[in-house]
Amino acid sequence: MAVAADATAPVVTMRRKVGRPMLVAAILLAWLVLFAVLRGRQTLTLAAADLTGLHRRLNDLNDSIGANRNSNPLFLYFFNEIRLVVDNLVTFVQSLISQPTGSRPVPQIGWLGVVGLTGYVSWAVGNWRVALLAVAGFTFFGLQGLWQESMDTLALTLSAVLVALLIGIPLGVWAGLSDRFNRIMTPFLDFMQTMPTFVYLAPLTLIFLIGGASAVITTVIYAAPPAIRITAHAIRSVPETTVEAAESLGTTRSQQLLKVLLPMSKRTVVMGVNQTIMAALAMVTIAALIDAPGLGKTVVQALQSLDVGTAFNAGLAIVVMAIVLDRVTTAAAGRADAARRSAGRLARWRRPLLAAGGVGAAVLVYLSHTYVWAAEFPGNGSTGSHIASAADTTTTWLQDHLSGVTNGVRDVITNGLLNPFQTLLTDSPWWLVGVTLVGLGAVLGGLRAAATAAVCVGLLVGTGVWSDSMTTLASTAVATVLVMLFGAVFGVWMGRSRLVDRIVRPTLDAAQVMPPFVYLVPFLALFGATRFTAIVAAVVYAAPVAIKIIADGVRNVSESTVEAATSAGCNTWQIITKVQLPMARSALTLATNQGLIYVLSMVVVGGLVGAGALGYDVVAGFSQGQLYGKGLAAGIAIVLLGVMFDRITQAAARRTRA
To answer: Are 235 and 172 in contact (CB under 8 A)?
Structure first.
């Protein structure tokens, strides 16, 4: 019996290894065969101006809500009040730093006061290097001729972050203290962080209308999950022995929280604030689609008119703001360590210097409040005009001299990958694509993933935008394949070389700080307004997270395993393909999951530059009232695609680890 068992063991192992790939291949082959027979039938194609019954009902719902907004008790005493409170907050912050108020032709605090306050706060929570960066960055906004737009963006971001932290940190503390509440919150947080940014806009404008208040409410919903999740993690990471020691001294639960848990988790909580600020800035710029003021509005208008120079100038301002906010909050998180390192040299001078700096900042605020020369940024923004002109000139040169290369790359990927796969998806019967997706979900993720795929497919059909969903799915799949190719190459390189990791990782970290809009501008200059522009932008946007995950997975492969393979005579290629990548399989699956989610969010934003499909439907829904219902249905379809991708790849990652 033992011999028989030993003989069958390799067979069982082989089946386990080749079972899933063979099943996936069989499903795809069956799809191709049936596609050849059934092509063009039951494709659920819908023209751009056509509406389904659901779309008309959503239009009617929008009209009904608009007609009864000031009489329906739910709106009159709840939603309208929320909007009023948030609107007052936004108006107050804007009156401080960006918009004229009352009889004043300028804000309460002019440019000189804002720059002084920014430098002082950056120095107080960080260090003098960060303060110099902040002062230089904010001065640059004025030199670009974008001072008011930048301050509008900052005002919306600060308003949203304040509300998000007031909600998120208490909920995060609760989730950190209570296992039950943490289990309740986790699915909601996962779902909220899975949804692309576009998705939040349409349903919230239905309730809160368009404008700055809706932009802040949308941003709060998008930016609060990182604060909740990271705060909960920080509370749970405090050593149990420390908590037990505090209990043994007779401290109450509130004393433990205020004197032990929160102080010991302060650094991690501040990093949560950093992530909340970055998420808020990304969302505020995209909220320009619902008439939010600021830099995002300038970028949207420039992208829609294909004005690369203006878009580049405003996009550069967004990048600078993202870098400044990121550096300041990151420095704040490391402030305690920096203070310990400088305890013997500068600590005794820090308080007097901070006091003097506070007086200086107050003087600058007073001057900017009192005198027009200190309130209005001097000059006419000629630096921004030069930047826009240089961007336009560069764009013209690239299109004149590199069009052969860029068009060649675009045509190879479009004709070789995108068009065939899009044709397969859009010209197959809807039920055939649905069965294929459910089958792939079952093989890769198990029965629960298959059930999720089945529900999502059914609801996608119900949205009435099946064909556009398949077009978006095609672009997302092609972009994800490219992301994983780049991720594997650079991830393995970084995972095998710590020097390369130290050089490349800061660039990847900086790339993840940038809001999605920024990525569209340079590729619009290179490739024009096409689907390929959105795909390339999505690849560049999603690649950093995939590369870092794969690099960490490769690095975590045991060195003894690699040494054993080397001693067995394996060359570098064999070690990578036969040892490191197979043993980092769970990291590869997780990178695919994150790459898909990032790509999907960027592909739909690409609706602004010719990507069409669901992204265009959402944008058209905001600009054309009769298409609002279709845009809302497209937002729902984006959610369904995101949920389906996320559940299948997460389940596949869990099965891989098992």
So the answer is: yes
pLDDT above 50: residue 10: no
* Mean residue pLDDT across the chain: 85
DSSP string, 340-404: HHTTTTTHHHHHHHHHHHHHHHHHHHHHHHH-HHHHSPSS--HHHHHHHHHHHHHHHHHHHHSHH
Contact between 232 and 170 (Cβ < 8 Å): no
Classified as helix, coil or strand, 43 is: coil
Rounded-to-integer distance, Cα 201 and Cα 192, Å: 13
CA distance 309 to 467: 34
The pair of structure tokens assigned to 377 is: 């940024």
Q: DSSP secondary-structure letter at 607? A: G
Tell me the C-alpha distance between 583 and 495, whole Å.
Answer: 13
- Amino acid at site 537: A
CB proximity list for 480: less than 8 A, separation 6 or greater: 542, 592, 595, 596, 599
pLDDT of 566 higher than 90: no
Q: What is the pTM of this model?
A: 0.82
Token match 């550069």: residue? Answer: 316
- Confidence band, pLDDT 50/70/90 cuts, at residue 4: very low
Q: Are 157 and 288 in contact (CB under 8 A)?
A: no
DSSP 8-state code for residue 557? S
CB 287 within 8 A of CB 259: no
- Whose structure tokens read 């011999």? 3
109 backbone φψ class: left, alpha, beta (φ>0; ψ -120 to 50): beta
CA distance 108 to 368: 8
pLDDT value of position 533: 86
Structure tokens at 185: 């919150």
pLDDT tens readout for residues 303-329: 878 788 888 899 899 989 988 998 888
CA distance 654 to 188: 20
How large is the angle between the packed helices 2-38 and 419-427, nearest 10 degrees?
80
Dihedral angle sign, alpha carbons of residues 224, 226, 228, 229: positive
The answer to whether 212 touches 287, Cβ cutoff 8 Å, is no
The most distant pair of C-alpha atoms in the chain lies apart, rounded to whole Å, by: 96
287 vs 198: CA distance, rounded Å? 8
Residues in the chain: 658
Q: Where are the alpha helices (DSSP H) in 39-146?
A: 53-68, 73-74, 80-97, 111-125, 128-143
Find out whether 126 and 332 touch, Cβ atoms under 8 Å. yes
Give the pLDDT band (50/70/90) at residue 191.
Answer: confident
Residue 547: name the closest of 625, 494, 468, 608 by CA.
494
**Which burial class, exposed, middle or buried, applies to 67 when counting CB atoms under 10 A from its CB (0-12, 13-18, 19+)?**
exposed
Q: Which segment of 242-251, 376-385, 391-400, 442-451 scores lowest on mean pLDDT? A: 242-251
430 contact partners, CB below 8 Å, separation of at least 6: 42, 43, 44, 461, 466
pLDDT > 90 in the chain, percent: 28
Residue in the block written with tokens 């659920």: 44
